[in-house]
């Protein structure tokens, strides 16, 4: 247990240091304007940012800066997704900020974790896995999965386990690039990814 705590604390300290490198937020979005622009997004992500299935992520309650960053990454193809590129390519910077503000103001619908996966999922989320070199998720995403807005660490609480698991697999394979998350996911076993994804869905 002592080793687990040390890993979690060291991860938190290293990630906190990186948070100081995040630039201050620029212009802010207009949630009212974003609501009108979000009509085209509703088919996949729901009218209020709560998607109906895990094939599409919930956007409600996500940090505005993170959402705007992801839209910019889709537009530049830094994050490769043909469907999202088709939507993002025509967005201006202000459009992205407005959409982000709209979804950030919404409340994420709570999810439910699978009882049989809860214990292992909580272990990985809160303490990581020292033997496999997996850092604690809570170090960046917080004990309740709310993330750290100032560091651009996303909120995870309530997210569909199907979506979270899919993203962990893309980080593990390198299909989605993020040095921090690639380093975490590459050492995770499939069963542990499934467990932590389920635990995250139950956070609120």
TrEMBL record:
Binding residue positions for heme c 2: 137, 140-141, 181
A Gene Ontology molecular function term of the record: heme binding
Signal peptide: 1-19
GO CC list: periplasmic space
Gene3D superfamilies documented for this protein: Cytochrome c-like domain
Record domain Cytochrome c: where: 29-107, 116-204
Superkingdom assignment: Bacteria
Predominant cellular place of this UniProt entry's protein: periplasm
Subcellular location, record wording: Periplasm
Entry-linked InterPro entries: Cyt_c-like_dom (IPR009056), Cyt_c-like_dom_sf (IPR036909), Cytochrome_c4-like (IPR024167), Cytochrome_c_Oxidase_Subunit (IPR050597)
One Pfam family per UniProt: Cytochrom_C
Post-translational modification: Binds 2 heme c groups covalently per subunit.
Keywords in alphabetical order: Electron transport, Heme, Iron, Metal-binding, Periplasm, Signal, Transport
Binding positions for heme c 1 per the UniProt entry: 41, 44-45, 84
PANTHER family in the record: CBB3-TYPE CYTOCHROME C OXIDASE SUBUNIT FIXP, CYTOCHROME C4
Protein name: C-type cytochrome
Species of provenance: Litorivicinus lipolyticus
